[in-house]
Design brief:
- This protein has helices at about 20-30, 75-85, and strands at about 10-15, 30-35, 40-45, 50-55, 65-70, 85-95, 100-105, 110-115.
- The chain is of the alpha+beta class.
- An eight-stranded mixed β-sheet has the order 2-3-4-1-5-8-7-6, with helices on one face.
- Strand 3 (about 40-45) and strand 4 form a beta hairpin.
Length: about 120
């Protein structure tokens, strides 16, 4: 499925123990995972392996789930966030499959925007 510019594309949440979380969600809901790093796993939504979210090992963040938007032009999206009154909290960084940045909206909610490499 193609990604759509500025659509909510991915949900990510932090778990204290990735192996235990994968075991729980697999047993409770039948979820499958793509392991990208020892501390990160993508959540598959269906038999074709489409991902809808991910789990990162670490301390759960206030507010829980991280909403991740997709962008076809990451620098333009970053500039638009700042121009609209958002605050970049994590500048663009590389990860397997692309680049992303995190920001706070004017209410203090943390979101992220990513683009494919």
């Amino acid at each position: 499925m193609p990604h759509t510019h500025h659509r909510i594309d991915y949900l990510e949440f932090t778990v204290r123990d990735l192996a235990a979380a994968k075991r729980f969600y697999s047993e409770a809901f039948g979820w499958s995972f793509n392991d990208y790093a020892p501390t990160y796993a993508g959540i598959q939504a269906d038999e074709e392996g489409m991902e809808v979210g991910g789990m990162a090992e670490g301390e759960p963040r206030p507010g829980g789930v991280l909403v991740v938007l997709y962008s076809t032009d990451l620098p333009a999206s970053e500039a638009a966030v700042v121009a609209a009154g958002g605050t970049i909290t994590t500048p663009p960084f590389d990860f397997p499959g692309g680049r992303r940045f995190h920001f706070h909206d004017p209410s203090g909610n943390e979101l992220a925007v990513w683009a494919a490499s």
